[in-house]
């Protein structure tokens, strides 16, 4: 895979970070410590994976830098902890292989637990551990800030994409576009956030209301019946407005302007352990989940073509380009540059430049006269064809 991490050149510094590497998972019997040199020579003692990740920092680049240096190590560690189960077609109840109860194998079968589930669990645990490390590092250096995290792992014939934040990954295939992540924003996670406030109202310190209203309520709304939603509601109802409802909403604003506690535009990410709502003692972190949603693509179930690629990008790209526009660019560019050995790198550059736009007077505009991205823009273009050969 080839990354292109390019600042849009409209801000003083770039808060985006990227990482990619090969991950070697040691395969050994529990409790046995083998000779290191022998393990290196005997490649059969390793399972190999390939890793790419993008981190979009906020409040400074520090959390993104720590995550780019550490998340892959956490993933390697968590995979090695369960490698005995991953190597089996159906993971055993006990990693040692023992069967304490006769129902143990039946439980695994009834729950449909497979090696894939262990990899997903390892990724979730790795994000959790990385978040803890970032918290410790930031506290020790008296720094604040956080980052979103989007990671892809190719392992044992499957592609795992783990996302915590508003970056996005899509597969651009010959005849289709497959979303491999979903954005986590205060709006998309409204019910989870409201439910947490319902369970632990002290987290709001009397400064916020958990209810969602179509707009910020005013004094004249008191006593009126207005539209509202609570944590258990997908639909809308009417509520008689009380004075307490005039407090600032837990989730306020719409689209890219939506904010969690009036502070953050994302609802999942790493870091932000020291972040407080301005002029209050309210911690944002309890509402900010570090656990990713993991989607899996099994190559054995698909006929992958030569120009099929994985696109990973921070929100600087997706703010101005939709999946369809990106897919059209990908297919057109690769069809016109079949003989270029650097075509995937060049495609990544083209995507960044397209979202960055061109300067017209005092504004940056796209070719179709829409406003260009003013955010940092980072893109991976990762070819999927002939994976084992490469």
UniProtKB/TrEMBL annotation:
Can you name this protein? Answer: Protein phosphatase 1M
Cited PROSITE patterns:
PPM_2 (PS51746)
Write down the PANTHER family for this protein, in alphabetical order.
PROTEIN PHOSPHATASE 1M (PTHR13832:SF236), PROTEIN PHOSPHATASE 2C (PTHR13832)
Q: Which GO terms describe its molecular function?
A: [pyruvate dehydrogenase (acetyl-transferring)]-phosphatase activity
Question: A Pfam family for this UniProt protein?
Answer: PP2C
List the InterPro entries: PP2C, PPM-type-like_dom_sf, PPM-type_phosphatase-like_dom
Q: Which residues form the PPM-type phosphatase domain?
A: 29-384
Name one cellular component (GO) term.
mitochondrion
Native species of this protein? Eurypyga helias
């Amino acid at each position: 895979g080839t990354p292109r991490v390019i600042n849009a050149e409209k801000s003083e510094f770039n808060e985006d970070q990227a990482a990619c590497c090969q991950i070697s998972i040691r395969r050994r019997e529990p409790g046995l410590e083998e000779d290191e040199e022998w393990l290196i020579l005997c490649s059969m003692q390793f399972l190999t994976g390939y890793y790419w990740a993008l981190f979009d920092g906020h409040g400074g680049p520090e959390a993104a830098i720590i995550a780019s240096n550490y998340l892959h190590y956490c993933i390697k560690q968590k995979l090695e902890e369960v490698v005995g189960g991953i190597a089996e077609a159906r993971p055993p109840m006990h990693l040692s292989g023992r069967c304490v109860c006769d129902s143990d194998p039946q439980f695994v079968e009834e729950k449909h637990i497979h090696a894939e589930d262990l990899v997903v669990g390892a990724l979730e645990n790795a994000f959790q551990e990385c978040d803890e490390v970032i918290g410790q590092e930031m506290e020790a250096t008296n720094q604040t800030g956080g980052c979103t995290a989007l990671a892809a792992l190719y392992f044992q014939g499957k592609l795992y994409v783990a996302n915590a934040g508003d970056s996005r990954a899509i597969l651009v295939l010959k005849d289709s576009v497959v979303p491999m992540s979903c954005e986590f924003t205060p709006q998309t996670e409204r019910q989870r956030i409201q439910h947490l406030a319902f369970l632990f109202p002290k987290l709001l310190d009397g400064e916020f209301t958990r209810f969602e209203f179509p707009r910020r309520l005013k004094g004249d709304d008191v006593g009126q019946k207005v539209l509202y939603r609570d944590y258990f509601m997908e639909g809308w109802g009417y509520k008689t407005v009380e004075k307490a409802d005039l407090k600032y909403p837990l989730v306020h604003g719409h689209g890219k302007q939506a904010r969690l506690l009036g502070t953050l535009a994302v609802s999942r990410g790493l870091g932000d352990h020291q972040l407080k709502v301005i002029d209050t003692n309210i911690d944002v972190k309890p509402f900010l989940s570090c656990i990713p949603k993991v989607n899996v693509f099994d190559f054995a179930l698909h006929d992958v073509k030569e120009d099929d690629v994985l696109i990973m990008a921070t929100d600087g790209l997706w703010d101005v380009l939709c999946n369809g526009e990106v897919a059209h660019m990908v297919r057109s560019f690769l069809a016109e540059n079949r003989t270029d050995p650097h075509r995937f790198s060049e495609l990544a550059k083209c995507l960044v430049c397209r979202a960055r736009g061109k300067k017209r007077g005092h504004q940056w505009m796209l070719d179709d006269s829409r406003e260009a991205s003013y955010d940092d823009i980072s893109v991976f273009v990762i070819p999927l064809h002939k994976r084992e050969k490469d």
